[in-house]
Write a sequence for this structure.
């Protein structure tokens, strides 16, 4: 059937229903290459309108399209059947544009629809590419168009048939009426025939209706089957329809002229009968044909209905899918919108940041630019300066060479001067020690300790302390100036003086040790007066509280360090105690003179050693001082210095002596072992006094051997040594008697002049000489003793009976005790006599008792007569006369002794 019928062209307009799933680009063209995976943009109303107009254009084109479109369609779709998704969009759009669908057989179109749907089902995901969907819609529209065209055509045919039928009926009625009018009998059979025909017609009509309803039912029942068989049957039906439709039409077209011809040929009047029969036959035939056509139309309608239903179902499915896709796309769109918003924000932030960076950068650029400018200008200046400097340098070089030459000359002169430096140093040392000598080789410092917590009373005996070493003490039992006594020492340290103050005055002695002199520093005083505090410091002393021991060694190391370029020093330490006249090495279990020597390199070494020594020291409690030391402790430091240039050696030693308490035995309330300890202490202190006063008398014999203490200190007590005594005072009024006794002894010592000290510079030779001297001294001492004995015997013969030689051995310390005891008397004479008597008592091993006899007094008087004039330093007008007398007791020197003494000097 021709499709270029203008009537049918209007039917070609696309039905733009709402389920249209077409997708279109903004440019308006159908997007054949729409992505198959990604989401598609649903068409808006505007887009749909554009698509419709496009379809219209396509359809319009198709009406004037290519005559070979059918062939082309067949080529494309038959060949690609089953792979619609893979069809290139160009081909599809070409097909649609080129009017290919118009000429394609309906069966092919249906198979394309089925193929696309099958492929969609097979792919499971249900997605149909846009271009294929467009094609599908196009094909379906084509099918719809054809069906509707056919339906219209059939309706037209039917109407034509009905019109003809009515026409024939009216003719039949006319013929029947004519026949009835002419021959009543003849018309009867015609009328009967007509009635019969009408009855039959009615029956046929009813039968048709029944059959129609049956067919309808059957259709409903078989709908499901049809659905399954659709794929197979539909093409057949379509084919059949396509085959039959032309036949029917052909038949109708063929028969129509025949009928018309028959009708035209028959003569209404002559051939009416014949015509009636023919008409009857034609009518029945036509009726049959009509029934048949109606049936066909019905079946076609059914098929159309089915196809519509399927199409609608498919449209619904696609609509659902579309909604799903739409929802997903909307979600995606929202997501993308939020991403876009984020991106926009970020872009804004970045823009802001970039802008601020740009500004900063510009600022930096400006700064750098200005900096560069300034640098360039500075560089220019520098260049100018550099040139100036170069010129200056040349000038300076010249002057430098001149100065250098002069300097060389000066250096030469300095080198010559440096050669004399050592000599100058030696001279300095010599001058220093000469100064010390001028100050006196035995010096006495008095230190008054403060009241300590827990001490009862707090009534002090100290009246005043003068700057010049003057100390005034007051007698608590004699208030007022009458009871005051004045003493003069090299220095008096009051209770507020600290350890550093005290050491500052000792330091020169330490320097003497390093210069090769022997030095002895000892602390003397009653128990608890602060001897250990001064020599060592309190328990667990801090550096500030360090006593003389630590400070002396610390200073010694400092001096040796300062001199390391010229003299190398070695330092060794010994530590002993003398307890009950027994010597004990506190650092090792060996006896003197082989007390262990411990080399030390630093103050910390010394601290460690002294700590060990103190742990070993014998300490026992007494009523006077709970921490009373009942032994003498002696730290001896040996220093050997080697002059790096001359190779000569210097030897010096330092004795640091913390003497045991000097309290009176009767006051310390001790008995038994403690009494024995006290007696030993008193004896050794007496021996020390004897040695000092013997030295003061410059006697040939110095009784070093009378105690272990003096033996040990021998090298540091004598003409070659420097001696410093700390007189420690307890300011408590309770200890007045002890303090007075101590002060008197100290003042006497202070008055002793030992003569110039001598350095041990000569090394080994000096030691040997010293040893020789010691033996000579011993020999002289023995001779002295003999002379004394002879003298005494001579005196006895001259009228002083009752005195034996033993009693002539006097001890200064005994004097001290006698002095202390004589405080009860104000009579100086009496005191002197008693002192002389006590010295005898002192010899009787600790007995404090003595018998006053006129014989002893006479001896004392004789001794006084023999006393040599006191040295200026010992002349203390305010000092007690007992001191002078005591000294006089040791001043009896035979001419040999004096000579020897001078010789030794
Ligand atoms: N200058 C001082 N400043 C403060 N406290 C002191 C001073 N001198 C001594 N002391 C204190 O007085 C007490 C007695 O001192 P220390 O033990 O030194 O006396 P000592 O004469 O050595 O006694 P002993 O003969 O029994 O050994 C100690 O507690 C000591 O710390």
């Amino acid at each position: 059937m021709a499709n270029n019928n203008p009537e049918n062209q209007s039917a070609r307009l696309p039905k733009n229903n709402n389920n249209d799933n077409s997708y279109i680009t903004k440019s308006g063209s159908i997007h054949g290459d729409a992505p198959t995976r990604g989401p598609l943009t649903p068409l808006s109303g505007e887009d749909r309108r554009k698509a419709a107009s496009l379809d219209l254009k396509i359809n319009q084109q198709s009406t004037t399209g290519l005559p070979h479109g059918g062939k082309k369609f067949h080529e494309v779709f038959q060949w690609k059947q089953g792979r619609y998704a893979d069809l290139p969009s160009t081909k599809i759009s070409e097909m649609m544009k080129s009017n290919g669908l118009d000429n394609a057989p309906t069966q092919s179109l249906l198979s394309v629809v089925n193929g696309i749907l099958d492929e969609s089902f097979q792919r499971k995901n249900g997605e149909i590419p846009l271009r294929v969907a467009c094609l599908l819609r196009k094909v379906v529209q084509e099918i719809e168009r054809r069906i509707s065209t056919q339906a219209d055509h059939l309706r037209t045919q039917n109407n034509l048939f009905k019109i003809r039928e009515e026409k024939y009926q009216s003719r039949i009625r006319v013929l029947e009426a004519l026949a009835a009018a002419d021959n009543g009998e003849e018309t009867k059979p015609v009328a009967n025939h007509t009635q019969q025909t009408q009855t039959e017609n009615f029956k046929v009509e009813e039968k048709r209706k029944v059959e129609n309803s049956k067919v309808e039912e059957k259709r409903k029942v078989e709908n499901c089957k049809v659905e399954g068989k659709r794929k197979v049957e539909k093409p057949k039906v379509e084919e059949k329809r396509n085959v039959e439709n032309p036949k029917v039409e052909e038949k109708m077209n063929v028969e129509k002229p025949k009928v018309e011809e028959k009708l035209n040929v028959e003569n209404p009047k002559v051939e009416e009968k014949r015509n009636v029969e023919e008409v009857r036959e034609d009518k029945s035939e036509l009726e049959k044909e009509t029934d048949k056509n109606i049936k066909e139309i019905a079946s076609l309608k059914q098929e159309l209905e089915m196809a519509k239903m399927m199409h609608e179902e498919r449209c619904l499915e696609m609509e659902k899918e579309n909604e799903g896709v739409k929802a997903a796309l909307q979600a995606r769109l929202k997501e993308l919108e939020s991403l876009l918003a984020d991106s926009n924000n970020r872009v804004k932030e970045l823009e802001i940041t970039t802008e601020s960076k740009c500004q900063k950068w510009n600022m930096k650029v400006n700064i750098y630019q200005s900096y560069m400018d300034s640098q360039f200008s500075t560089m220019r200046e520098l260049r100018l300066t550099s040139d100036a400097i170069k010129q200056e340098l040349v000038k300076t070089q010249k002057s430098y060479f001149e100065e250098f030459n002069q300097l060389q000359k000066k250096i030469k002169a300095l080198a010559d001067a440096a050669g004399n430096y050592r000599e100058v140093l030696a001279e300095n040392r010599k001058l220093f020690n000469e100064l010390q000598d001028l100050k006196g080789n035995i010096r006495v410092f008095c230190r008054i300790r403060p009241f300590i917590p827990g001490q009862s009373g707090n009534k002090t005996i100290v009246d005043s302390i003068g700057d010049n070493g003057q100390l005034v003490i007051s007698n608590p039992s004699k208030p007022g100036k009458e009871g005051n006594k004045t003493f003069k020492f090299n220095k008096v340290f009051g209770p507020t003086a600290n350890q550093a103050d005290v050491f500052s005055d000792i330091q020169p002695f330490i320097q003497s040790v390093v210069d090769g002199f022997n030095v002895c520093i000892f602390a003397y005083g009653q128990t608890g007066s602060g001897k250990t505090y001064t020599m060592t410091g309190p328990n667990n002393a801090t550096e500030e509280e360090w006593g003389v021991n630590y400070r002396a060694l610390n200073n010694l190391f400092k001096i040796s360090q300062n001199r390391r370029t010229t003299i190398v020093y070695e330092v060794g330490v010994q530590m002993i105690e003398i307890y009950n006249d027994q010597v004990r090495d506190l650092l090792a279990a060996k006896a003197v003179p082989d007390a262990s020597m411990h080399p030390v390199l630093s103050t910390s070494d010394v601290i460690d050693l002294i700590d060990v020594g103190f742990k070993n020291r014998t300490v026992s409690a007494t009523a006077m001082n709970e921490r009373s030391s009942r032994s003498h402790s002696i730290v001896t430091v040996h220093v050997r210095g080697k002059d790096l240039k001359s190779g000569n050696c210097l030897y010096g030693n330092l004795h640091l002596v913390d003497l045991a308490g000097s309290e009176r035995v009767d006051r310390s309330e001790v008995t038994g072992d403690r009494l024995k300890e006290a007696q030993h202490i008193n004896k050794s202190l007496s021996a020390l006094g004897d040695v000092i006063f013997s030295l003061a008398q410059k006697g040939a014999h110095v009784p070093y051997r009378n105690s272990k203490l003096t033996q040990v200190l021998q090298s540091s007590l004598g003409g070659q040594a420097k001696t410093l005594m700390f007189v420690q005072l307890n300011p408590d009024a309770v200890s007045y008697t002890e303090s007075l006794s101590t002060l008197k002894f100290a003042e006497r010592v202070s008055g002793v002049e030992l003569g110039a000290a001598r350095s041990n510079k000569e090394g080994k030779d000096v030691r040997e000489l010293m040893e020789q001297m010691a033996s000579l001294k011993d020999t002289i001492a023995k001779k002295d003793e003999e002379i004394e004995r002879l003298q005494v015997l001579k005196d006895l013969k001259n009228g002083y009976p009752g005195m034996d030689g033993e009693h002539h051995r006097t001890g200064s310390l005994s004097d001290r005790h006698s002095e202390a005891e004589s405080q009860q008397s104000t009579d100086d004479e009496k005191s002197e006599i008693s002192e002389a008597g006590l010295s005898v008592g002192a010899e009787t091993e600790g007995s404090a008792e003595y018998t006053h006899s006129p014989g002893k007094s006479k001896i004392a008087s004789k001794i006084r007569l023999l006393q040599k004039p006191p040295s200026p330093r010992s002349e203390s007008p305010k000092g007690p006369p007992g001191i002078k007398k005591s000294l006089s007791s040791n001043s009896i020197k035979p001419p040999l002794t004096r000579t020897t003494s001078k010789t030794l000097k």
